[in-house]
Amino acid sequence: MNPVSINVTLVSDDRHLEELLRSSGMQVTSGPTATLEDLSEVSAQQPDVVVIDVRSQTQLPSTLPLLTQRHPSTGVLLVASQLDPALMLKAMRARVRECIAEPVDPAALTAAINRLVVERSPSAPGQVLAFVGAKGGVGTTTTAVNVATAISQLASAPTLLIDLHLGGGDAALYLGAAPRHSVVDALENIHKLDEMFLRSLIVRTNSKLDLLAAPTRIISGAIDTDRIQALVESAARQYQYVVLDLPGSDAAMLDAVAPTSTIAIVVNQELAAVRNAGRVASALLRRHGKDRVTVVLNRYDPHAAIGQDDVERVTNIPVRWSLPSNYPVALEAANKGRPLALDNHNKLAAAFVAVARELTGVPATGRSGGLFQRLTKRRAH
Ligand SMILES: Nc1ncnc2c1ncn2[C@@H]1O[C@H](COP(=O)(O)OP(=O)(O)OP(=O)(O)O)[C@@H](O)[C@H]1O
Ligand SMILES: [Mg+2]
């Protein structure tokens, strides 16, 4: 990238910092903290990057969250006296994506600004699909793992599965993966979660799918909604498809998936599961609206006492996908660590592939990865 083209607004009275930016070939406009108020106006023209010097401050500027909310593509870099964890957390909540500390290294400063400019390039964020179980054991992980695998095969596009079961999840086992890191490493280091760092935490599975696994040790304590949201947003900037395996029992987790395009409640025809699906559905509908919430009826049996219409009545959402039951195949796949969607020899595998086709828009007869897809494809990992 040619640094001459980068426009920087510098909020600082440090002339040395201004000189440093100029000598790297950037076009710099500097001003006091009040400059951020002007930039936060809805119609304000935005620079490529805003550099905010907080070395002499104890707080972040109060208008910063408004700026990043109204202008999410404006990159913000903080220059702090030190990388204090409390400040980092506040910065992350204010959607600051880069932070450097004293002594200011010119190369690190330029590299951080270049990263922000690259991120600003207008590639749309990836599609995020969350599967949330109405109850334990209904087949949420089986569905998430197989749909994600089918998407990665069909779309030939970077696809990531995130197992958000902080109390321990099964996706790694179902995918035959042996991850060394987990979603907890990402959440604990959320302020430095750039492309390189995320890549160091994921494990490539036997198919083309990448996995950010659940922790193997049990994590206690409250879920930090902001961190999970930041993780999902960051993943969606780097992957064309992000699939989430979500625990449905945690209301905070349901809040955390705000960047999700489709949230599918997985349910079967057991009374307790259907009743819980009603609760999860009303919580999700309240938070995310009717267009984004959908229902998957797993292990569907047309002769069961509880029918599809009952599920729809309780959840108030039409069932979008019914998946047939095939316990021997599902069990063997889980035990072998090889998603059954990879071997399209039965109705259940075909059903997962059909869900993936619908979500990605790859037609049944068409070759995967058409011209448009190849043009819009993100960088492969
Ligand atoms: N469509 C299906 N047909 C038959 N068996 C299935 C089907 N889907 C899942 N199963 C089986 O049901 C069991 C539970 O599946 P899975 O682990 O995916 O559920 P879960 O909802 O993720 O459970 P947990 O609450 O423990 O996370 C597994 O033995 C799996 O093989
Ligand atoms: Mg599970």
Structural write-up:
This protein is an alpha/beta fold. The longest helix has 18 residues, at 271-288. Strand 11, helix 12 and strand 12 form a beta-alpha-beta unit. Helices cover 41% and strands 18% of the residues. The protein has an eight-stranded mixed beta sheet, with helices on both faces. A five-stranded parallel beta sheet has the order 2-1-3-4-5, with helices on one face. It has 16 helices and 13 strands. Helix 6 (140-155) packs across helix 15 (347-360). The protein is elongated. It starts with 6 loop residues before the first strand and ends in a 5-residue tail after the last helix. The structure holds adenosine-5'-triphosphate and magnesium ion. Residues 140-141, 169-170 line the site of magnesium ion.
